[in-house]
Each structure stands twice: as structure tokens, then as C-alpha cells.
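for the writeup, i need someone to sanity check this before i put it in the appendix. the sequnce is what the collaborator sent (i think, or maybe the updated version? ugh). structure was predicted straight from it, no edits. if anything looks off just tell me and ill rerun, i have time this weekend
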Amino acid sequence: MRHFLSRYASSKFRIALLLLMMAGAFCVAMSSFAQGAPGAAAPKQKTGLFQVIMGNRDFVFFTIILCSVIGVTLIIQGFIKNRASVLMPDASVNHIRELINQRQFKELIEYTETDPTFISRALNPALKRAPSFSSMKEAMETAIGEQTAEQFRRIEYLNILGNLGPLLGLLGTVLGMIEAFTAMNDAAGAASPGDLAGGISKALAHTFLGLMLAVPCLSAFGILRTIVDRLTIRASLVAEELLLMIKPAEAKPAAAGAAAAAPRSGATPQPAIPGMRKAPVPAMPPTM
């Protein structure tokens, strides 16, 4: 299963999957077109929603189908990549903890440089800013912000497709109404309901396709946005916890230096010498 997920994450596999789904949609459209061709005696009457939709194929129809294929690909990719086992796998977190506990910082930098997880990509810039802990923390916060924005950018295309669906449906609706009114004009205002049915059918079919594109994309976008927000916050807390495991090792020399400098300061009292008594303070003579 892990091999399949890593294979899916590659760009070549996504392109192959997209082309396969587009080919399947094209085959379905062509088979429906062949079944709907008129016979020798009389054409079959179109019945059912699928026949109505497939009977109104134009550039708006194929644009919506293409956007739907892209949307399905993005939805599958979003739910596969935005998981806790991908952003912060237990194996990577435990290995980083082990390297920190063993003070193998060189190996830690090399590991976080090659590990593609959220935790490693957040820690690697911080480790390169050592030994200043304030600089390390600032670098980690910047890396976390960049990764969080990148995760949101990946699912933002679903929001674009979801908002584009009703607009494409509206475009098809306008084209259908133009066709209907053109038929009425050609009939000099005496058009029958059959003459207007074609344009109205096209208008409603495109509206339906636009909604079918918008509803899944916007729903998936809302769910994925919540998932990304929750997982990035959890990963940020884990990365901060791992960074704090390095801080005590840097605080020890500073504390030792402060303790060594304390006896040399004038404000600290010197220890008493054994065997020496403190001289009594003479009483002041009473003033007249």
C-alpha cells in the first residue's frame, strides 16, 4: 500500500491516471453517441437524464468534463497526501528524537535534509542556524509558515474548480437560451414547444453539469482545508517540542558562565573566613 501511495505521488503516475480517466470519459461519450444515432425508420426518442446530457455535447460540455476529471484527481491526491502518517510519520519523529538524545547533530542535519516530511523540513533550517536558539526558532517558524502555505496552495485548485463550475454552467445556459430564442425567431414567433425544447434542454443540462462539478469540489475543499489546518498545527507542535529538546544542551554553558561570573561581581558578599569574629560596632555617644 505504501508503494502504491508513493507511486501515486509522482507526477508521471498522476498524468497517466488523468489520461486514463479522460480516455474512459471519451469512450463513454462515443458509445452513447453511437447508441443515440438515428436509425433507418425513425430516431429513438431520448429518455433519461444521461441521454439528455449526452445529447447536448459542445465545447462547454467537454470543458466541464475535463474540469471534472482534474477535480477528481485533485480530490484523491488531497486525501492521500494530507494525512498524519505522511506529514509526521512516527518512524521519522522517533528517529529524530533518538538522534537528539544521542547528540548526533551532524547525522540529524543530514537526515532532515533528505527526509521529505513536514517535521524534517521544519527542523532542517533551524538546525542550520545553531547555536543561537532565537535564530533557530525564527527559522523554524518561517519554514512552518512556508510549508503550511504550500499545503493550502495545493488544495486551492479545488476551490477554483468549484467556483468555475457554476460559471461554465451559466455559460451553457446562456447558449441554450440563445438557441431556443433563435428557433422562435426562425419560426416568426409561432414556434412549437418542440422547437424550443432543444435549447431549453441544453441550458438545463449544462446547468446540471456545472453544479455537479461545483458541489464535490467545494465540499472536498472545505473538508481538506480543515484537515490541513489541524495537521499542520499538530506537526508544528511536534517540531517545536523536538527543537526544545536541543535547547537545554545550549543553555548549560551559559548557566555555567553566569555561575562563574557571580563571585566576581561586587554585589555578591564574600564568604566569611573561619575563626574570625565580626568586630562589634561601637555605640554612638548620645547627642546633647
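DSSP finds eleven helices and no strands in the chain. The mean pLDDT is 75.
thx in advance!!
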